[in-house]
Specification:
The chain is α/β, with parallel strands linked by helices and about 475 residues long. It has two domains: about 140 residues, Rossmann fold (3-Layer(aba) Sandwich); about 230 residues, 2-Layer Sandwich (Dihydrodipicolinate Reductase, domain 2), CATH 3.30.360.10. Helices cover about 35% and strands about 15% of the residues. The chain is built from 15 helices and 16 strands. Strands 15-14-13-9-12-11-10-16 form an eight-stranded mixed β-sheet. A six-stranded parallel β-sheet has the order 5-4-3-6-7-8, with helices on both faces. A two-stranded antiparallel ribbon has the order 1-2. Strand 4, helix 2 and strand 5 form a beta-alpha-beta unit. Helix 5 runs antiparallel to helix 15 and helix 13 crosses helix 14. The longest helix has 18 residues. It starts with a strand and ends in a 29-residue tail after the last strand. It binds nicotinamide-adenine-dinucleotide. The site of nicotinamide-adenine-dinucleotide has 30 residues, from helix 1, helix 4 and helix 8.
């Protein structure tokens, strides 16, 4: 086996000290280093379309039972052939809440781990788990997923999967070596409009898609997030820690919601790949000011640790693909503005855009009529959505897309099918954070985007939401 050959780029170190939330403890850095690249690497095995043996029942462990973890556990507990065997958090409240829920469904109690912030490692060591869901704050995802795969389990991580290039590489390497899936829980690909346009793209509706735009513009203003100190999840209302942390990171801190669906529609890693990106960023007009006000108001050491540092503003990244296409990706969460993921595809035959209002136009500058839109929705709804779309709306979770994501992943594992996203998707979608950070701190110079597939993107097949290979059989109980 040829060893990976690392080419050193200028090191970019960026560490943020955060100690306010005690379970973060010593894990106090979001190091957005970009000092690793790989050249001359060979794939150990291609995890795209990799089929692991079916897992029925599917035995699940959870690490992190805050908002996302608990919501997912509630969905999975209602799926036939799923057993929630073990749960870990570093606080007791989320554990009790999850156990109470299992009890209310007359399901067996799960083994519980919460005595320290390292207890999750004991969960990984169990020999009765097939998959571990990692739903902790972002800076913990990579370490936990690597650990889970090395312990012989498939891993599913919330977004983003990693925050450093080194971690992206580590995850690819571990998934290939262990033959374990590393699935990124990128729910937005399964949202109804996004999935429909992916299906349309695959059927040639847009012609050649030459340009895509995605975004994460969140209405949750910085002021309100930073004015509420993050709390451990001691109640339903606890302020999630990850939101605070993301506000402090420079570059595009949350790229995957906007980027994932665009990549799937444009066949990125299945026939095309991103070659390089450049990124610009506004100054910070809000975060530092808000933190300074909080120091003044509270004199709290939690806020004092942030004094005098440089924080990010709005970020815009542009990318060019090997096949000569372009993608723009925006990230704006520091000022109040309407929520938007944009989701724009511009093709030689047709165009679509989701936000602010879903529209499609065919070869001209006029959106199609409401009647035509309804026809298109009927014609191009992927079979996956036809099969479980109504159920998903009933179960909810961001309008149903969270349910579709969980159901689909569970169903793939139960049937030994390759999941829709592989570790290469996860690494590519997540590496935008460190690469955009590097670019904005280098006068927007471009930076190469690693080919995590080592050339396999040329022949890897596109996502298949058709269910033609089976996979309709996970019932709800
Ligand atoms: N896909 C989406 O739509 C979406 C939406 C919101 C959040 N997210 C992502 O989901 C993740 C979790 O977000 P959340 O809102 O559930 O946050 P949260 O703060 O509510 O939950 C995180 C949980 O992880 C636990 N935790 C922290 N450190 C731990 C450790 N060392 N060991 C075990 N448990 C630990 C916390 O105690 C908490 O219960 C984040 O990464 C975020 O980026 C995704």
């Amino acid at each position: 086996m040829k060893r990976r050959d690392f080419m050193k780029l200028p090191a970019v170190g960026f560490a943020l000290g955060l100690t306010g939330y005690s379970c973060a403890g010593e894990l106090d850095e979001d190091v957005q280093e970009t000092d690793v690249q790989w050249t001359g690497r060979q794939q150990i095995r291609n995890m795209h379309d990799f089929q692991a043996p079916p897992c029925l029942p599917l035995r699940v462990g959870y690490i992190g039972l805050g908002n996302r973890g608990f919501a997912s556990l509630q969905r999975l507990a209602k799926m036939q052939g799923v057993e929630i065997r073990a749960i870990a958090d570093c606080y007791e409240y989320p554990i009790r809440r999850a156990q109470d829920f299992l009890k209310s469904r007359n399901l067996p109690e799960a083994a519980e781990y919460f005595s320290s912030k390292e207890s999750w490692k004991d969960l990984c060591a169990r020999d009765d788990l097939d998959v571990i869901y990692v739903t902790t704050p972002p800076y913990l995802h990579a370490e936990m997923a690597v650990h889970a795969m090395l312990a012989g389990k498939h891993a599913a991580t919330e977004v983003p999967m990693a925050q450093t290039l080194r971690d992206c590489i580590r995850l690819v390497d571990t998934s290939e070596k262990t033959g374990k899936h590393c699935f990124i829980l990128e729910n937005c690909v399964y949202d109804f409009f996004e999935s429909m346009t992916i299906n349309m793209a695959q059927q040639g509706f847009f012609g050649e898609i030459i340009h895509g735009e995605g975004a994460y513009c969140h209405c949750g203003g910085t002021g309100s997030v930073l004015q509420h100190k993050p709390m451990p999840p001691l109640s339903e209302e606890a302020s999630p820690y990850y939101q605070h942390r993301l506000k402090l990171i420079r570059g595009n801190a949350y790229p995957t919601h906007g980027f994932g669906p665009i990549c799937k529609a444009m066949g990125i890693l299945t026939g095309d790949r991103i070659e390089y990106l450049s990124s610009v960023e506004t100054d910070d007009f809000v975060v530092g000011k808000t933190l300074a006000e909080m120091i003044e108001k509270t004199n709290d050491p939690y806020y004092k640790q942030f004094a005098g540092k440089t924080y990010g503003g709005g970020n815009s990244s542009i990318m060019r693909t090997a096949n000569g296409k372009t993608i723009c990706l925006d990230y704006h969460t520091s000022v109040g503005r309407p929520y938007s993921r944009v989701h724009l595809l511009s093709g030689t035959k047709a165009f679509c855009q989701k936000n602010p209002t879903p529209l499609i136009s065919i070869g001209n500058d006029q959106p199609v009529s409401e009647e035509k839109m309804a026809e298109l929705q009927k014609e191009y709804a992927p079979e996956l959505h036809v099969h479980i779309g109504e159920l998903a709306k009933k179960f909810g979770g961001h309008g149903g897309m969270d349910f579709i994501e969980d159901w689909r992943f569970v169903n793939c594992l139960q049937n030994g099918l390759a999941p829709d996203f592989d570790v290469y998707d996860a690494a590519l979608w997540s590496c935008i954070t460190p690469l955009s950070f590097w670019s904005v701190t280098h006068r927007s110079n471009s930076i190469d985007v690693p080919d995590f597939t080592c050339g396999a993107w040329k022949t890897n097949k596109p996502i298949d939401l058709s269910l033609r290979n089976g996979g309709k059989n996970t019932e709800m109980i």
